[in-house]
Amino acid sequence: MSGSELYEEFMALHTRDGGLVMPNAWDGLSALMLADAGFEAIGTSSAAFAATLGRSDGRHNITPGEHLEHARLFGRLTGLPINGDFEDGYGDTPEDVAATVEAAVASGLAGIGIEDTSGNPGQPIRDFDDAVNRVRRAVDAAKGRIVVTGRTDNFLQGRPDLDDTIRRLTAFAEAGADVLYAPYPPDLDALVAIVTAVAPTPVNVLISPADKVLTVAELQKAGVKRISVGPALYTHAMEALQQAIKALVTGDLTTVATGISFERISELLARGAN
Questions:
Q1: How many Å apart are CA 7 and CA 265, to the nearest integer?
Q2: In DSSP terms, which residues pair with 203 in a beta bridge?
């Protein structure tokens, strides 16, 4: 499938009634499990991927090559459109971002996210003009071959400025971003304000607004077109692991022995190999 065909296929999921739920995998088996459950597209999670390598997220600790191979694995195993959660585009300049987008296209990704983060704890959000220029260069490089998500992390970085968030997302849309994303707006009213301000550009939501976890139906009613879960499935799995470890420490082998069967794992891996 050509890049333009993959772009059209992936965008169609965003523009149809109801949009899509796009869960985030962190390894080959989790990607296969999501595909087996019937999900139509899968996202990477930079946070979950970094954690699997023993690294922290958002500090340029992952290289573009590592993340591209990670995303390619999901595509090879599942045959589904893969959206790459590529932090700030892995580069200091807009030209670096464009190079990352080109590499993502060459790797067969269906989508890529570009954040306005900087990797600098002292100034975690880039200046407005710099952020917009980076999205613009990403769109220019994409050339309609990969879905570009423009993302602002204002709320994640302790900048609860709804007006600036909408200003940034609107500018990303004007620069050509196909999807817009601001993780964890404070409440449903803020989410609706974002969706309304940037319409008709599709909006992605990370699980829900910050104050309350809503249902998929409630988010769809609010106008959300894509729902992702970031590292939530990964942390859910790690909680189960933590409980099993606690049981093992006390000598409880029964709890440790419960879980998905290795026969089931082998079945999924065989499906991916084929």
A1: 31
A2: 180
With beta carbons less than 8 A apart as the criterion, state whether 55 and 116 touch.
Answer: no
What would the pLDDT profile of 208-219 be if each residue is shown by its tens digit? 999 999 999 999
Burial 77-106 (b: 16+ CB within 10 A, else e): bbebbbbbbbbbbbbeebebbbbbbbbbbe
Does the pLDDT value for residue 223 go beyond 80? yes
H-state helical runs in the chain? 3-15, 28-36, 46-52, 64-78, 94-106, 128-142, 162-174, 188-198, 216-221, 232-249, 253-257, 262-273
With a CB cutoff of 8 Å and minimum separation 6, the contacts of 127 are none
d(CA 2, CA 18): 26
For residue 55, what are the CA distances in angstroms to 59, 241, 256?
A: 9, 19, 26
> What one-letter code names the amino acid at 97?
V
Indicate the pLDDT class of residue 273, thresholds 50, 70 and 90. Answer: confident
Please give the single-letter amino acid code of residue 40.
E
79: tokens are 């045959």
CB of 150 closer than 8 Å to CB of 144: no
Is residue 221 pLDDT above 80, yes or no? yes
Identify the burial level of 128 via C-beta atoms within 10 angstroms of its C-beta, where 0-12 means exposed, 13-18 middle and 19 or more buried: middle
* Residue whose C-alpha is closest to residue 45's, from 237, 249, 262: 237
At 42, list the tokens.
């899968």
